[in-house]
Design brief:
The protein is α/β, with parallel strands linked by helices and about 260 residues long. It has two domains: about 210 residues, 3-Layer(aba) Sandwich (Rossmann fold), CATH 3.40.50; about 35 residues, no CATH class. About 45% of the residues lie in helices and about 15% in strands. It contains nine helices and seven strands. It has a seven-stranded parallel β-sheet, with helices on both faces. Helix 3 packs parallel to helix 4, helix 4 packs parallel to helix 5 and helix 7 packs across helix 8. The chain is globular, with a radius of gyration of 18 Å. The relative contact order is 0.14. The structure holds nicotinamide-adenine-dinucleotide. The site of nicotinamide-adenine-dinucleotide has 26 residues, from helix 1, helix 4 and helix 6. Nicotinamide-adenine-dinucleotide binds next to helix 1, helix 4 and helix 6.
Amino acid sequence: TLQGKTAIVTGSNSGIGLGVARELARAGADVVLNSFTDRPEDHALAAALAAEFGVQVRYIRADMSNGADCRALIETAGGCDILVNNAGIQHVAPVDQFPVEKWDAVIAINLSSAFHTTAAALPAMRARGWGRVVNIASAHGLTASPFKSAYVAAKHGIVGLTKTVALETAEEPITCNAICPGYVLTPLVEAQIPDQMKTHGMSREDVIRKVMLERQPSRQFATVEQLGGTVVFLCSPAAEQITGTTISVDGGWTAL
Ligand code: NAD
């Protein structure tokens, strides 16, 4: 059980981040939810999680494209035992036409934010004598696809950051690992299915199997619950000697 631990999950008002936050709350951790918005529904999400699992849940607005905001998130939380760097965006374009501002935003949100939050969180972890850093990378942290230069560069970068932080904390009760999901069924992905069905004139099942999961040998999406479960595992005593590595949750994608 993670009772008494405080977990901060960046980019957690939807998708994988919210799924990870749920599983951490289910395991007994107090949770800090985050995104760049500050809407009533963001805070309502925190209240609902708290009520469901009987833990403390707060929503703290911070824009992960801004280094000072990243550090302020950790300071405002007032403690951090588990840091999950999950916030991420995608942009798809050929490298010679890739908009510079999109490149900068992808690198800032998907890579630099983890540098800032980790730098701010390590002193707190050291002070309390325990810590877990889990970076949500991607199959694209280990392999590439065309037209995703910024995303692939950022995800390879976060795998490198993961290894370096692991070495710097190797003799301490702190670990740092990356999870590399393949295609995960999030609301964002679900919303693309009807369009793809129209475009390809295919059934839902065929769009999923033949278009979306073409590179995922299991032909099944990973789920946000499975990713949350992997984070909880990395926080468990069984994972104490797992550090500086990647865990793929990709149905065999990177085995191809
Ligand atoms: P999503 O769009 O549902 O969630 C992204 C989260 O990041 C949201 O909560 C969003 O509000 C937040 N966010 C975006 N910009 C932000 C900013 N500037 N500051 C703070 N928060 C911000 O997407 P998702 O699929 O849940 O992706 C989560 C992570 O998982 C990303 O790092 C993504 O690269 C990675 N990932 C997703 C998949 C997949 O198939 N869905 C696969 C591999 C890796």
